[in-house]
């Protein structure tokens, strides 16, 4: 996979309470990913960027919510998230050291 595609597949880590529970219980990290990304692309991108061994990737398509605004109804965009399970002893630290 070329380096340009690696940066387009992974958009951002998804930090929520549910993601924190998955991280503690199953050594999983949750990422927001491109809507056209495949499981294999996600696996390769995480391995290349963070130098970790990935065991499993599960993806979920999240439907955008309909919201009422001052001008009428609006809709948030659909997006995709990936649950990436790391091998035992592997970890990714997103904390910024200053």
UniProtKB/TrEMBL annotation:
GO terms for cellular component: ribonucleoprotein complex; ribosome. GO terms for biological process: translation. The keyword Transmembrane does not apply. It comes from the Bacteria. It holds the Pfam family Ribosomal_L23. The keyword Plastid does not apply. One of its GO terms (molecular function) is structural constituent of ribosome. Keywords: Ribonucleoprotein, Ribosomal protein, RNA-binding, rRNA-binding. Belongs to the universal ribosomal protein uL23 family. PANTHER family: 60S RIBOSOMAL PROTEIN L23A (PTHR11620). One of the early assembly proteins it binds 23S rRNA. One of the proteins that surrounds the polypeptide exit tunnel on the outside of the ribosome. Forms the main docking site for trigger factor binding to the ribosome. Part of the 50S ribosomal subunit. Contacts protein L29, and trigger factor when it is bound to the ribosome. This is Large ribosomal subunit protein uL23. It comes from Gammaproteobacteria bacterium LSUCC0057.
